[in-house]
Specification:
By secondary structure, the protein is mainly alpha-helical. The protein has 13 helices and 6 strands.
Length: about 270
């Protein structure tokens, strides 16, 4: 897991990072209180970290907490709680008070927030906590990255296999990541940020399971996609996003707005890239 990419002169203190990494290896990712222990270590030992050291500390901490999220099975804790209908709505709208129940208070103390999906409530890493702790300490590119991730989390894009935000916002996100990646080609998480850029472009070209470009095999292109393609060509002409969307929009128009074999071939290109 890379924690730094750049010249040796600005590299972080590897000794302090090794100590932090060694400490994390002593923690059990399947115990919820390991989250607080990891956060406490950062506060006590890396609280004064700045620049690339703060970047690296954030990455190590985030990766550890993500492992906890994936491997910890903490949904078993939330399964035991008796949730009210209003709780589900509050969680979905990012308005839930984590102090409401003993278990949610404990979840928050250990660096997690809640999400809902398919009738279940489950803990996920709390990126807002990262923002509060690291945004003023990390390098400018990492600050921009953190703030964008947090903003996107607050306005969830997906629900039940469908896109639930306006497609124009999907385009804005794709354009933001393209601009970020061009400005920061050696960003330590460039593989992830490039994937974000590509995935958002894919959605604008190919749609999603419950937000299809073509509602049916014989139906014409969705009006929503026609509108967002026009929006992209107006707002982001000259970008890679704009060029790709124009290629799709022009082909669909030439094919009479239908999902022809030529259109499917172009869509397949984005599915395999």
């Amino acid at each position: 897991m890379p924690v730094y990419a750049g010249p040796r002169a600005t590299s972080p203190d590897l000794g302090r990072l090794v100590q932090f990494s060694t400490f994390l290896k002593t923690l059990n990712v399947k115990k919820l209180d390991s989250g607080k222990k990891a956060w406490d270590y950062v506060s006590q030992n890396l609280g004064n970290a700045q620049g690339t050291l703060a970047d690296a500390a954030f990455i190590l901490l985030e990766r550890f907490l993500f492992r906890m999220e994936v491997e910890g099975n903490f949904y078993e804790l939330t399964e035991k709680n008796k949730w009210q209908d209003s709780d589900y709505m509050a969680i979905h709208e990012e308005k839930f008070d984590m102090q409401k129940y003993p278990i949610t208070k404990q979840i928050a103390e250990n660096g997690f927030r809640l999400e809902v999906g398919e009738g279940m409530v489950f803990p996920v890493v709390d990126w807002a906590k990262f923002g509060a702790a690291f945004a003023t300490k990390v390098t400018p590119p990492m600050k921009n990255y953190l703030e964008q991730i947090i903003a996107e989390q607050k306005n969830q894009m997906w629900s039940d296999g469908g896109i639930i935000i306006p497609l124009e916002q999907v385009a804005d996100r794709a354009a933001w990541w393209e601009k970020f990646n061009k400005a920061n080609p050696y960003f330590v998480r460039i593989e992830e940020t490039k994937h974000s850029q590509d995935a958002l472009l894919f959605m604008l070209i190919c749609g999603a399971d419950n937000t299809p470009v073509f509602p049916g095999e014989t139906e014409p292109v969705s009006e929503d996609f026609k509108k967002v393609w026009a929006y992209v060509q107006q707002q982001y002409a000259g970008t890679e996003l704009g060029k790709s969307v124009k290629e799709m929009a022009d082909l669909v128009a030439a094919e009479g707005g239908k999902r022809t074999k030529n259109v499917e071939t172009l869509m397949q290109k984005y599915m395999t890239e």
